Amino acid sequence: MNKMLHRGFGLAICLTLALSLLLPAMVVAATYPCNFFGTASVDGEPVDAGTAITAWAENLATHDMDEVGTTVTTSVPVPGFYAMVVNLDSSTHSTTIHFKIGTLNATETATWAMYGSVETDLTAYTTTLPIVNNVDPDHGYQEDTLDVTITGANFDGATSVSFGAGITVNNFTPDSTQITASISIASAATAGNRTVSVTTPEGTGTLEDGFTVLSFGPEPTVTAVDPDQGYQGDTLDVTITGTNFDGATSVSFGAGITVNNFTVNSNTQITVSISIDSGATPGTRDVSVTTPEGTGTLEDGFTVLPPEPTVTAVDPDEDRQGETLDVVITGTNFDGATSVSFGVGITVNNFTVDSNTQITVSISIDSGATLGARDVSVTTPEGTGTLEDGFTVLSAIVPAPTVTAVDPDQGYQGQTLDVVITGTDFNGATSVSFGAGITVNDFTVDSNTQITASISIDSAATGGTRDVSVTTTGGTDTLADGFTVVVPPVWVDVPLYLGMTIVPAYPGFDNDLPANLPAEAVMVWHQVTADEATPEIPAGTWLHWTRGAPPQFNSLHGLIAGKAYLVSATAACVWSVPAT
Predict the structure, then answer these.
(1) Which long-range contacts (CB under 8 A, 24 or more apart) does 514-518 make?
(2) Any bridge partners for residue 576, and if so which?
(3) How many whole angstroms separate alpha carbon 55 and alpha carbon 102?
(4) What angle do CA 185, 188, 193 make, to 5 degrees?
(5) CA–CA distance, 346 with 372 (Å, rounded to integer)
């Protein structure tokens, strides 16, 4: 039925627009249209399709009520709606429009507006008895005193109003379609529905079950609040749990807390939006819920907290592994701070709360701390404030190494030997170099000041000095001419002659002898004579050539006095000597 009524209403509006174009003006003078539309009912029931709706206005010259309207509902198939056009010369007619539904005067009037479109619902009654259509509010609790509005028709001259047993009508004010009544419901009034009646000299009109008396139920109880705390300046939603919340009229969280709004979710739960003043006194508050039956309170049900700390800046905001430094943290609400954190690998040695907005911290960064950003946090009894990525750990600065000595500092072509390099800051060494023609087989960092390297000198390596360098993550240092490649002797065979003096060389001999003479070498002096067997000298023995007798042999075959020579093989009469 409702769909049909709305569809009919739409057709009526369309018809009104059509009529504004097709219907002639009802007055000869210049007139202007105004559209009127709405519902039409008699005795509360929609009128039938085809019912005549008539409109008129007072003639300002003659004060006659000129019927200026016309029937426009005869073609509307849906009952209960009308639409019409009223054309007026506003200079000669009142703008108050009166209506009839059929032959009955409608209780409503409307105001004409040039080219307007005015919605006016029309009602008429076939009886002069009062008609009660509505009561607002339509309920009340025992012991309530309240004002109630009764709407209907034919209320002129009303002599009494009744709300039934247990309800006293203190006073009332009527007009033709509305009565305002002040009523008081007795504490012992029986709960339930009441018939509301209005009496005039014409009779009495009633509305059955027009008002309901509600009884007081049990008082509400508050058992829990979640969350049960908030910070100064916060706005948050809180859930109150308890019983008998139906019909709740107010919720309170105490001084300094504003209840913005609340919703009764069920008889046992209320959701509340609250705002805590920034200056609200910290501490507990009672939480209460009020219904018509009374007030339930949870003592100390909510706590106002000072605000949590916030961390906004850290200065300096970075440093290197192994460093100890002072850092200034800036933010808010630092009073009473109990701890400060810079994350893993950073030790907070101590801190001082300089003010509510600043903390000075002494920190030590572990030498092995992981590189990268850290969160910086400050904790007070009210909570913890954190600045994400507030501090960054950088890699440590590694000092460059220094090379001061190499031992031994020379070697022969084709030789493989261990060499000790002395210096500083060798930890973490990544490479060792002895220059062209020398291969570093491996090396060991014995300490921060010593490296042992195994090297092999190419047999074709160019004789001469080499730079020795050590590289670490801190850089490279070089000892110029730190090592020398020595070219070994060229072997020749020389016969042993009478009068030759043979003196094996030994450590410490200072005539161009190699630095690596055998430790077992001893000094032997031997004079070879004509009748003495040729001596045998072991291979590998270093000998020193000195003057002997006869003098003509002092430089035999290029042997030079004061020079050292190496025996190439064990032989009686053959010596190995340099060619020059």
Answers:
(1) 514/486, 514/542, 514/564, 515/408, 515/410, 516/408, 517/542, 518/542
(2) 493
(3) 11
(4) 60
(5) 12
Q: Determine the topology of domain 402-486 in CATH.
A: Immunoglobulin-like (2.60.40)
Note whether 131-214 and 402-486 share their fold. Answer: yes
Give 556's DSSP letter: G
Tokens matching residue 225: 């609040």
Local confidence band at 386 (pLDDT 50, 70, 90 cut-offs): very high
The tokens for 34 are 């105004």
Residue 72's pLDDT is 41
Distance from C-alpha of 505 to C-alpha of 513, rounded to nearest angstrom: 8
Query: Is CATH 3.30.530.20 the right assignment for the domain spanning 131-214?
Result: no
CA distances from 235 to 229, 273, 332 (A): 11, 7, 19
For residue 541, give both structure tokens: 């023995």
pLDDT confidence of residue 96: 86
Measured CA to CA, the distance from residue 214 to residue 191 in angstroms comes to 5
For the domain spanning 2-124, the CATH number is 2.60.40.1120
CATH topology of domain 221-305: Immunoglobulin-like (2.60.40)
Q: Which residues contact 452 (CB under 8 A, 6 or more apart)?
A: 418, 419, 420, 421, 443, 444, 446
Q: Report the candidate in 512, 509, 491, 487 with the shortest Cα–Cα distance to residue 580.
A: 491
What confidence tens digit (pLDDT) does each residue in 14-70 have? Answer: 444 444 443 333 334 578 888 989 998 888 789 888 888 888 887 766 655 655 544
**What tokens appear for 115 in the block?**
């080219």
Q: What tokens does 559 get?
A: 């042997």
pLDDT of 85 = 87
User: Which tokens hold the place of 468?
Assistant: 């020795």
Average pLDDT rounded to a whole number, residues 397-412 = 93
User: What pTM was computed for the model?
Assistant: 0.38
Q: Which one, of 123, 199, 195, lies nearest residue 160 by Cα?
A: 199
Q: Where are the domains of the chain?
A: 2-124, 131-214, 221-305, 310-394, 402-486, 489-580
pLDDT one-digit tens code per residue, 67-126: 554 444 444 457 888 888 888 876 766 788 888 888 888 888 999 888 999 999 998 888
Check if the beta carbon of residue 86 is closer than 8 Å to that of residue 98: no
Place of tokens 């192994």: 322
Query: What type of residue sits at position 335?
Result: D
User: Which fold is adopted by the domain 310-394?
Assistant: Immunoglobulin-like (2.60.40)
Q: Mean pLDDT across the stretch 262-282?
A: 94
Q: What is the pLDDT of residue 527?
A: 39
Q: Which residue has the tokens 């300089």?
A: 354
Q: Is the dihedral of CA 562, 564, 565, 571 positive or negative?
A: positive
Alpha-carbon distances, residue 403 vs 15, 423, 427, 449 (angstroms): 110, 4, 13, 9
